[in-house]
């Protein structure tokens, strides 16, 4: 069980590093928005892996709150986004 949690943590870290490349080097603002949203999802997954590892359920409300904030943020930015100049 511990090996699987470590492997999932390492894979989450690798994917976060790859997504940071998209956030910092994205060609337009919509790519950056998707990257930030994916980083938030990876953070939520990391908290879930930590909750399973530590057998502590007190982080579950934080996971739910982060999911709601990520959804509201993505919808609001997508709604009021101005087209990029090309």
Mean pLDDT: 88
Strand content: under 5%
N-C termini distance: 50 Å
Low-confidence stretches: none
Backbone shape:
flat
> How many H/I helices?
3
What is the number of independent domains?
Answer: 1
What kind of sheet is the major sheet? none
Count the beta strands.
Answer: 0
> N-to-C SSE series?
HHH
The structural class is mainly alpha
Mind telling me the C-alpha Rg?
Answer: 15 Å
Helix content: over 70%
GO molecular function: sodium:proton antiporter activity
Subcellular location: Cell membrane
Family: Belongs to the CPA3 antiporters (TC 2.A.63) subunit F family.
Protein name: Monovalent cation/H+ antiporter subunit F
How does this structure look, described?
- The structure is a single chain.
- By secondary structure, the protein is mostly helical.
- It has one domain.
- It is 81% helix and 0% strand.
- It has helices at 2-25, 29-54, 60-79.
- Helix 2 (29-54) packs antiparallel against helix 3 (60-79).
- The longest helix has 26 residues, at 29-54.
């Amino acid at each position: 069980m511990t090996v699987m949690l470590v492997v999932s943590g390492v894979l989450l870290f690798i994917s976060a590093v790859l997504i940071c490349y998209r956030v910092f080097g994205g060609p337009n603002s919509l790519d950056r928005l998707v990257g930030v949203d994916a980083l938030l999802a990876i953070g939520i997954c990391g908290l879930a892996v930590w909750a399973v590892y530590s057998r502590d359920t007190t982080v579950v409300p934080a996971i739910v709150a982060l999911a709601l904030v990520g959804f509201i943020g993505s919808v609001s930015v997508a709604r009021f986004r101005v087209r990029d100049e090309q």
